[in-house]
Design brief:
The relative contact order is 0.15. The strands form three sheets. Strands 3, 4, 5, 6, 7, 10, 11 and 12 form an eight-stranded mixed sheet that branches. Strands 1-2 form a two-stranded antiparallel ribbon. Strands 8-9 form a two-stranded parallel sheet. The chain has helices spanning about 5-15, 20-25, 30-45, 60-85, 100-110, 125-135, 200-215, 225-235, 280-290, and strands spanning about 50, 55-60, 90-95, 115-120, 140-145, 155-170, 180, 190, 215, 240-245, 255-260, 265-270. Helix 1 (about 5-15) crosses helix 4 (about 60-85). The protein has three domains: about 5-80, Winged helix-like DNA-binding domain superfamily/Winged helix DNA-binding domain (Arc Repressor Mutant, subunit A, Orthogonal Bundle); about 90-160 and about 265-290, Periplasmic binding protein-like II (D-Maltodextrin-Binding Protein, domain 2), CATH 3.40.190.10; about 160-265, 3-Layer(aba) Sandwich (D-Maltodextrin-Binding Protein, domain 2), CATH 3.40.190. It has about 290 residues and is an alpha/beta fold.
Length: about 290
């Protein structure tokens, strides 16, 4: 019989997490789809791999054996695939459209020769690190605070602290200023869930900054992306929106930089240790240039 590598990969995620919801998120599936794949693998092998109860999930003895054998098998599979495709493409997570990362990738694309860049947009570093580990992407731009600990096998470069500003509608009292002093922030309600840069890392970073500045974060606000939705969201009566100053122009709004602070968006890029590819070299050149 032939084992389906995809099913093996999903089994390893479930076996390592021992929690089907977390494992499903790790491999970008619904919990129901992951459960179906595990059941399909168990049926093909003719053996139960998990012992399930209402309180916990554990591996059977056959599940433990398969986990030990599947890890090196998947690693070798990924190495084969990675080497075969590495010369033709380089996949980069740019966080979101029109971000600083997306502009850097556009600059790096001038150096495409015998390969092609592909852009991806993921909602956070946890997912991009999992995709990096599984060779689905080759590098990822990210919000990389000093306090963030990266896993083994990942290298990083922290390359820019992008200044921050407030996005406000035209006619807002803050729109009359060229810059916004920190003295106006204490007690000011500010939204930090809007913009193509918003990820889980940004949420934590922004929450810490607003607490430090004495500003009040807007609670339980859904993420707003795209120029059209932002233009609808940033209007009279709505709170200012915290954004990096590289935020593209939004009709009906103005962006005013914050003055008197060195705090900024901590841009970084991560990649697998040992990566040797012209695409990674081109990214570093673009960072140095821009």
């Amino acid at each position: 019989m032939d084992l389906d590598v995809r099913l093996l990969r999903h089994f390893v995620a479930a076996a390592e997490e021992l929690h089907f919801t977390r494992a499903a998120a790790r491999v970008c599936l619904t919990q129901q789809a992951l459960s179906r794949d595990i059941a399909r693998l168990e049926m093909a092998l003719g053996k139960p791999l998990f012992a399930r109860s209402t309180r916990r999930v554990s591996l059977t003895s056959d599940g433990e054996l398969l986990l030990r054998l599947a890890r090196p098998l998947l690693a070798h599979h990924d190495e084969v695939v990675g080497q075969l495709r590495s010369s033709s493409r380089f996949v980069v997570d740019v966080v979101g459209e029109f971000t600083t990362a997306a502009r850097l990738l556009a600059t790096a694309r001038r150096d495409e020769d015998d390969f092609e860049f592909y852009a991806r947009e993921t909602p956070g570093l946890a997912i991009s690190l999992a995709q990096l580990r599984d060779h689905h992407i080759d590098a990822a731009f990210c919000c990389l605070p000093d306090t963030f600990t990266l896993p083994a096998g990942v290298e990083h470069r922290r390359f820019h602290t992008e200044p921050l500003g407030l996005l406000v509608p035209r006619g807002h009292p803050l729109a009359r200023r060229r810059t916004i002093p920190m003295s106006v922030l204490p007690g000011l309600e500010i939204c930090c869930h809007a913009g193509n840069h918003v990820t889980g890392e940004w949420d934590r970073f922004a929450a810490e900054l607003l607490a430090k500045w004495g500003a009040v974060p807007v609670a339980d606000h859904p993420v707003v992306r795209g120029a059209q939705d932002l233009a609808h969201h940033v209007r009279p009566g709505e709170p200012p929106v915290l954004v990096p100053v590289g935020q593209p122009e939004i009709p009906g709004t103005v962006l005013r930089p914050l003055a008197g602070t060195e705090d900024g968006y901590p841009w970084g890029v991560v990649w697998r240790t040992g990566t040797q590819h012209a695409g990674l070299d081109a990214l570093h050149r673009a960072i140095d240039e821009v």
